[in-house]
């Protein structure tokens, strides 16, 4: 084996060029200078900037991807990943709190809002009689300006008539309900599903991308309040449950 010339080897206590490149890219990501969704410069551009081979840059990007800081998309390049988030299965968690727990700026947008009667398509969502009035609302929750979760919700207006006139300017529908309407029981259903073309467009992901879907119904005693379907891109969300042993 031929040793590299001393001019190409890092002096003791000094970082190699590879380490320097990784530290600088990592610093821009962790500091928020490059927020989630930011495209990383292409390999050839980084190699030119640092005066090194593309192999060196490729090794750095591979390590950043393994650390969960970036995602590499074939033919599209590398992008800063959104930090993984998690929800407690047995709790009703405010999505704003989820986002802010990640240290990211939260926002939401109402995409559709309609007052209508129960339809056949609502079967299994809320057990309501024909003619019952619903608020049908769809909104997207964002983290650092990037789509985080798609919320599709119906609210029983017989149980919550004031929801029909609520503007949801400062609070999302879910947060608004939790702050105003008591609930005595809830049901969660959790499954994986491929993003439909419409969901994919809203979440800015590819159609067919695996997603985590949480469906929840809540009641006040025996009166249905709301049904919500929350769709998260699967690679950036996980569910957490804590259990205690039962006696006997």
Question: What would your notes on this structure say?
Answer:
- The strands form 3 sheets. The chain has a 6-stranded antiparallel sheet.
- It has helices at residues 17-30, 43-50, 54-66, 95-101, 173-180, 197-203, and strands spanning 70-73, 77-80, 85-88, 106-117, 133-143, 146-156, 185-194, 210-220, 223-233, 237-240.
- It has 6 helices and 10 strands.
- It is an alpha+beta fold.
- It folds into 2 domains: 16-80, Winged helix-like DNA-binding domain superfamily/Winged helix DNA-binding domain (Arc Repressor Mutant, subunit A); 85-240, Chorismate lyase-like (Chorismate lyase), CATH 3.40.1410.
- Helices cover 23% and strands 33% of the residues.
């Amino acid at each position: 084996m031929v040793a590299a010339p001393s001019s190409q080897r890092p002096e003791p206590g000094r970082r190699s060029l590879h380490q320097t490149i990784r530290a600088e890219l990592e610093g821009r990501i962790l500091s928020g200078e490059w927020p989630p969704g930011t495209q990383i410069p292409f390999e050839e551009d980084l190699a030119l900037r640092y005066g090194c081979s593309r192999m060196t840059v490729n090794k750095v990007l591979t390590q950043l991807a393994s650390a969960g800081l970036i995602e590499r998309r074939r033919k599209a390049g590398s992008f800063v990943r959104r930090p993984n988030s998690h929800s407690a299965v047995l709790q009703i968690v405010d999505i704003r709190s989820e986002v802010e727990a990640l240290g990211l700026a939260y926002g939401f947008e109402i995409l559709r809002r309609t007052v209508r009667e129960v339809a056949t398509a609502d079967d299994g969502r809320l057990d309501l009689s024909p003619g019952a009035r619903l608020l049908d609302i769809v909104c997207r929750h964002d983290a650092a300006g990037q789509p985080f979760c798609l919320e599709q919700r119906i609210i029983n207006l017989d149980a919550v008539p004031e929801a029909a006139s609520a503007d949801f300017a400062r609070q999302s529908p879910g947060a608004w309900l939790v702050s105003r309407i008591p609930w005595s029981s809830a049901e969660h259903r959790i499954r994986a599903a491929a993003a439909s073309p419409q969901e994919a467009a809203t979440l800015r992901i590819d159609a067919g991308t695996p997603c985590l879907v949480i469906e929840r119904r809540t009641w006040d005693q025996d009166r249905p309040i709301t049904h919500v379907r929350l769709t998260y891109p699967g690679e950036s969300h996980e569910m957490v449950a804590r259990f205690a042993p039962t006696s006997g």
